[in-house]
Design goal:
α1 (67-80) packs parallel to α2 (105-121) and α2 packs across α3 (127-135). β7 (287-289) and β8 form a beta hairpin. Strands 1, 2, 3, 4, 5 and 10 form a six-stranded antiparallel beta sheet that branches. By secondary structure, the protein is an alpha+beta fold. The protein is built from ten helices and ten strands. It has a single domain, classed as Ribosomal Protein S5, domain 2. The chain has helices at 67-80, 105-121, 127-135, 143-150, 203-212, 218-237, 241-256, 260-263, 270-281, 303-311; strands at 16-31, 40-56, 89-95, 153-157, 176-181, 188-194, 287-289, 296-300, 317-323, 331-336. Helix content is 35%, strand content 23%.
C-alpha cells in the first residue's frame, strides 16, 4: 500500500496496538459511460471527514454503527489470513460523513476500515486488492479509492475508452488515473441538499437503475472525454477558476443526460432539479449534482463568497458542508504497544 512520510507515523502493523485513519469526502462530477469500464472525474474535499480507529482487543467488536459493513470487511480479512474467526479488533468511528448524499462516504469508510485491519493483521495488499478484496468497493467508479490514496482532482478512465460488454463487474480491471490535479487550497465548495429530497439511490436500487440504462453512443462518450481533457483539466491545472466552474457545470449536466431514462432528466428528481435551478438563478457557477445526489455542489473562488451563499439559503435548502479541496492522501497514524 502506498505510504507518505507526512501522513504515516509508522508502517509496521505488527508493532502497533491501534491504527487511526482520517480521510475526506468525494464529490463525483459524472461518469463517462453507463457501461464498464465507466470512467469519470471527481475530487476529494476536506469535509465532511471520516475518522476510523481500530485497536487490538480480546474479541471482535464492530460497535453500534455500520456494524454490517464492518463485519463484512472483517470476514474478508479473516479469509485472507486463513482464519475462520473474526480478528480480535475493536472499531470506533469518531466521525462519519453523511450517508447517501453523493459524498462517497461508503467508500471512504470501507477503505479506512480495510486498511486499518490489514495494517494490524500484517496483511499486504495492493491498493487495487485492498479496494476489491477487502473493502469491496470501486465496482463502477474508482475516483473514491484513487482519491483515498492520492487526494486531489481525479480523472479515471480506461486507456482505450472502450466498453466491456458481457463482463461481470468483478471481472473488469480498475481504471487507472489518467490525470490528477491539485486544486488551489483557497477554492471552496458548498454542498447542499433539499430538506425534503427524493428517494436516495444506492445498493440494489442503484444496480437496478444501471441495468435499465440504454447503451451510450461512442461519440457521446468521446464528447464527454473531450470536455474533461480540453476544458476541465486545463482550467484546473492553470488554477483558472471561472473556466473550471463553467466546465464542471457543463460536464455534469451532459453526464447526467446519460441517466435521463432513470431519473427523468440530467438530475435525480424534481427536488434536486429545483435546487440547481435556484442556484443558477442566483448566478452561482460551478453547480451540479454529485453522483446520484441529493448532494449538490456549488464552487467558489474563496470561502467569503461561499459563506455568503450559505447565509442566503432559503428554508427548503439544507447546507451539508463548506469545504476546501483535499489534495493529500488519507492520514494514517499507528500507535506503538510500548507507548
Amino acid at each position: 500500500m502506498p505510504d507518505s512520510a507526512a501522513n504515516n507515523r509508522r508502517s509496521n502493523g505488527l508493532n502497533s496496538s491501534a491504527v487511526r485513519v482520517r480521510t475526506g469526502s468525494r464529490l463525483h462530477f459524472g461518469l463517462l459511460d453507463t457501461a464498464a469500464p465507466f470512467g469519470g472525474i471527481g475530487v476529494m474535499i476536506a469535509d465532511p471527514a471520516t475518522e476510523v480507529v481500530v485497536s487490538r482487543c480480546e474479541r471482535f467488536e464492530a460497535g453500534p454503527i455500520e456494524t454490517a459493513r464492518i463485519t463484512d470487511i472483517a470476514q474478508r480479512v479473516a479469509q485472507l489470513s486463513d482464519d475462520s474467526a473474526l480478528p480480535n479488533l475493536r472499531v470506533e468511528l469518531p466521525q462519519l460523513a453523511p450517508q447517501h448524499a453523493g459524498l462517497g462516504s461508503g467508500t471512504q469508510l470501507s477503505m479506512a476500515v480495510a486498511e486499518a485491519f490489514c495494517r494490524l493483521m500484517a496483511i499486504k495488499q495492493t491498493p487495487e486488492q485492498l479496494a476489491t478484496k477487502v473493502a469491496g468497493r470501486g465496482k463502477r467508479s474508482a475516483v473514491g479509492w484513487h482519491g483515498y490514496f492520492q487526494g486531489g482532482l481525479i480523472f479515471e478512465a480506461s486507456t482505450n475508452g472502450n466498453s466491456v460488454n458481457g463482463s461481470s463487474l468483478n471481472e473488469i480491471p480498475f481504471n487507472s488515473v489518467q490525470q490528477r490535479v491539485e486544486l488551489p487550497p483557497s477554492w471552496t465548495v458548498v454542498v447542499v441538499r433539499p430538506r425534503a429530497p427524493d428517494r436516495s439511490v444506492s445498493g440494489e436500487l442503484e444496480t437496478q437503475k444501471f441495468h435499465r440504462l440504454p447503451e451510450v453512443a461512442a461519440e457521446v462518450v468521446a464528447e464527454l472525454r473531450s470536455q474533461i481533457q480540453k476544458r476541465i483539466l486545463p482550467a484546473a491545472s492553470a488554477a483558472n477558476f471561472d473556466p473550471f466552474a463553467d466546465a464542471i457545470s457543463c460536464y455534469n449536466a451532459a453526464s447526467g443526460e446519460l441517466f435521463r431514462s432513470v431519473q427523468n432528466g440530467p438530475y435525480n428528481g424534481p427536488a434536486v432539479t429545483a435546487l440547481i435551478q435556484w442556484l443558477r438563478e442566483q448566478n452561482i457557477r460551478g453547480v451540479g449534482q454529485s453522483s446520484w445526489g441529493p448532494g449538490v455542489f456549488a464552487w467558489f473562488e474563496n470561502r467569503v463568497e461561499a459563506n455568503q451563499l450559505v447565509q442566503s439559503l432559503p428554508d427548503w435548502i439544507e447546507p451539508i458542508t463548506i469545504a476546501n479541496p483535499r489534495n493529500e492522501a488519507r492520514q494514517l497514524i499507528e500507535t506503538n504497544v510500548d507507548r
